Amino acid sequence: MKEASDIIKDFENFLISEGDELNTIRSYTYDLLQLENFLSIRKKTPITTTVHDLRDFIHTMFDTGLSPRSINRKISSIKAFYRYLVFNKTINYSPASDLELLKVGRKLPLILSIDEVTSIIESADEKTPLGLRDRACLELLYAAGLRISELLSLTITDLDLDNDLVNVIGKGNKQRIVPFGKKAEKAIDEYISIGRPLIIKKRSSPFLILNARGKNMSRMGFLKILRKYRIKAGIKKRVTPHMFRHSFATHLLEAGADLRVVQELLGHVDISTTQIYTHIDREYLKEIYREHHPRA
User: Fold this and answer.
1) How many structural domains is the chain composed of?
2) Annotated catalytic residue 26
3) Of 106, 122, 167, 216, which has the fewest beta carbons less than 10 angstroms from its beta carbon?
4) 171: annotated active-site residue
């Protein structure tokens, strides 16, 4: 019989083959290794686990003070793992099938104002190759509402500059075509024609976004760049790449875009995921009302 760690590794390889994001896979693996440690104390394995074992594990998470949202992530990891074991015919029935997610209030995502987005983007120095790259990165991140992983995995051939479109491979290896505006087109064109050749020199790479050594930029590399321009723009609050995506969706809805269109642009499978941005829109309307109505 396989060791628990080997079974978890098989599941990890399965997720990789399915095209799941690296961060998602790491989260699943972390949660399942925690479960493995818990089960080993009980002399149990993933194969011999019962629903009572799983519920006891969840209760220990409560005892450590973990938030309901974080506990739900672990429940989702466990359910996905046991679905895989049933699918793989390792077990006949999932002991996690009766586990239910906790009800938690949905937090509104943090966004940037249009002025904040503009000031960050325009902080990039377009007189240098790296500045041209940074401007193109920031313009495209906001113009197309991309996840950071989607941006950094883009290749040159994913761009259609004649029609201002980008081919994006999102979560679950799902493909979508997203338009972008003229400002993004200008920044990308200048980067590709002027900045990128000076960065890559005689090397070659299919990736659009390169680091200073001419290789595919890492997530950490982009975070350092974003922090630099956030400080340069004089913005005090923490800014993440995903806030550009949240801002993209919110600003579209504030301007009157149809919810279904925004869902398509973001690549959301379920429209309920996109509907969170309508709540932000309502908060924005309330704020404007409070500021300007004489009897607010």
Assistant:
1) 2
2) no
3) 106
4) yes
Residue count of the chain? 296
Q: Is 232 among the residues known to form the active site?
A: no
Write down the catalytic residue from 9, 83, 215, 242: 242
Alpha helices in 46-128 (DSSP H): 51-63, 68-87, 114-121
Residue 86 has a pLDDT of 92
More confident of the two residues 4 and 70 = 70
Residue 180, pLDDT score: 95
pLDDT at 286 over 80: no
Any idea what the CATH number is for the domain that residue 37 is in?
Answer: 1.10.150.130
> Among the options 73, 79, 135, 147, which is catalytic?
147
Q: Domain of 123: which CATH number?
A: 1.10.443.10
Q: Are residues 276 and 154 in the same domain?
A: yes
To the query of whether residue 59 is one of the catalytic residues in this protein, the response is no
What is the token pair recorded at 25? 């896979």
Is 218 among the domain residues? yes
Whether 246 is catalytic is no
Give the active site residue among 74, 133, 230, 245.
245
The C-alpha atoms of residue 182 and residue 104 are separated, in whole angstroms, by 41
User: Domain end: 49, 69, 87, which one?
Assistant: 87
Catalytic-role residue among 73, 133, 230, 268: 268
Whole-structure pTM over 0.70, yes or no?
A: no
Domain that holds residue 175: 114-291
The last residue of a domain, from among 87, 102, 123: 87
pLDDT of 288 higher than 70 = no
Catalytic site residue from 171, 183, 186, 215 = 171
2 is an active site residue: no
223 and 177, same structural domain? Answer: yes
Long-range Cβ contact pairs of 159-163 (< 8 A, separation 24 or more): 159/188, 159/192, 159/208, 161/185, 161/188, 161/189, 161/192
